[in-house]
Amino acid sequence: MTIVTKIIDQAIGVLLFAYLILSIIIPSSGYLILGVLILSLIGLMIRRYSLPLDKDEKIIFFSFIAYFLSALLNSYLFNIDIRELDSVSRFILVLPIFLYIRKSSLQTEFIAYGFAVGAIIFGVGLISYKLMNINLFEFSKHKGMITFYAGIFSISSLFFLNKKRNYLSLIIFITAGFLGISAMLLAGGRGVWIAAIFSIFILIVLNPNYWNKLERSFVLFIFVFLFIISFAIPNSGTFNRLEKAYTGITEFISKGDEARDYAKGFSVMSRLEMWKAGVLILKDNLIAGVGLNNFKANTKKLIQEKKISPKIGTFNHPHGQFITTLVEQGILGLIVLFFVIYLPFRVGLKVKNIRSKDSMPYIIILTTTLFYFFYSFTNGIYAHQNTTLFYALIISVASALLKRDSRQNYPSE
Hints:
By secondary structure, the chain is an all-alpha fold. It has one domain (3-236, 324-406). 69% of the residues lie in helices and 0% in strands. The protein has 16 helices and no strands. It has helices at 3-25, 31-46, 55-77, 90-93, 95-101, 109-132, 143-159, 167-187, 190-206, 213-232, 238-255, 267-282, 295-304, 321-349, 359-375, 385-406. Helix 2 (31-46) packs across helix 5 (95-101), helix 8 (167-187) packs parallel to helix 10 and helix 14 (321-349) packs antiparallel against helix 15. The radius of gyration is 22 Å and the shape is globular. 46% of the residues are buried. Mean pLDDT is 85; it is low at 352-357 and 408-413.
């Protein structure tokens, strides 16, 4: 390792750490990744020795390319403006970063502590706002996105806990878990709650740190306890969000067509109506879909035919990544999307006999893929540049670190 490559690796670590923290405060902080990309390209020119991709690395690398090519083919078939590929292009943008990180000496702690500090900042900020009406920074514009990030950060932090870590690290990760999960629950994002509940249960079953039953029960207790507390706090919003969800579902089921008039009033009913529109559109477009961002145009036809409520005529996507991909890109696009989430998850599962610090990349991969999978049922998570970049970046970096650390023989430079 030369002095130059060491500086590059440290600079990349600092930029990634800053990006994770700023994603809570300024969700449009993706410009920092441009610096990571430039440094990675410079690093690849310096570290020019050959390091062939192994099977798992090829799986992740080519799944990212396949997802982009699937969207590109769809835009060609339906004559879609090339600018509609802006979000999905993030999967290609991160590939040089992936190729460099696997050769670098980047420390996983830059990512892990970025998660922890981000969760703490979110927790302090939102709890101060909810309980003391002190607005430390703006949440309202990107509340859903910030809460989603915080969910990943805080639950990952809980699973970073390990007996072999030093006392300060344990305090940081425990604080991040408590504050981040508390604030996530108080923020009122039902889609995030669903993703968090399923993710934490699966992580407890997978047990990446090889905890005993008591330790796993303790983590589960923390989550359940915090959920009950957030539910019991007066004016917290948790109860109201659950009540609205229940009311929306029962109204939609019981009133049928009449419930459409209320679709704009309840977000749950809006989603149900949009999903219904998606199913109607799919009847004649199951294989290839109707084209990227063409949901709204097809919805207008259904409204004219009085098959769905006009209240949802302003929505560009049916608020669910799986249904959105199925409507816009058909069954072929949905299969590619599934593999983009499943294949990194599978790579993480293949790692065995994980030692203390080595478990961090594994936990990051599992938590991120699980959150994105379950959140994709209720939100169009890959329709936004910021959340698409976050997924592509975190999975590529964590996967590169995981495979690098598991590689027994490092070539000399």
